[in-house]
Amino acid sequence: MSLNKSAYRNGWMKRFAFDRPVIFSIFVILAAGLLTEIPFDDIFAPLVDYPGAEFLKVIIGHLLTGFVLVGLLVKLGLMKRAGFTHPSHWKDLWLAWPLLLFVFLNFSSLLDGSLVIDTSRPGLIVLYAFMTLSIGFCEEVMARGVVLSVMLRKWSSNSRRGIYLSVLVSSALFGAAHIFNLVTGHLPLLANLTQIIYSFAFGVVFAACVIRNKAIWPMVIMHAAMDFAGGLRHISVGESVQAAVPNATISEAVSSIIISLPLILYGMFILRKVD
Prior knowledge:
The protein is mainly α. Helices cover about 70% and strands about 0% of the residues.
């Protein structure tokens, strides 16, 4: 009897995750958001300047959260479904090509001279690179690892409709999770609303590629590359990490949304050939 009770207690999380994937995912996203906001910068502030302390805070917070989420996947028995597979099993990596276009688009500010990297601070550039990698790791493990996997576990059942539903709902939650940037004051309202919408669109492609590729690591790298290219102002001449991000204009918001929305169709299209 005691063994049965122990098994019941140990299995409550699986039952919750597999029976109520949306509610479970909301709890996971909220917990992850809180973990990433632990003020580790207070520890490093006496040792390094502000940008370095801020980057270290983000790196440690996201790595810690990412490893906790990996532990959760292990507990749920979802590592393989989440895409933690050997490179020999990876396939169709070329499907991520539209995301590379956005990486190159964000690098265009370097080509036209409107932004110049501050090469006098190589240490800060390295920290920035590690920061974007930690964010890519944490967010992919959360959204395409835990959230997408529990939904596929519940809804797919060899049903293409269930796969589409899992991708759309997990991507919607991924987009909504960016409300943290408004709550914490990192982004003003219009810029944040724009980010939520285009994050949903990008989330669809990321999720579709993870499912088609049977791998999460390539999307971690792609996510990091996009964040690196999109935030170059943090390491550019004359810019400050402390500087407030200007709110988007209506035209900028509309343009960003229009450019990203076709990604939803692309993601749905490449899911047609899921094995």
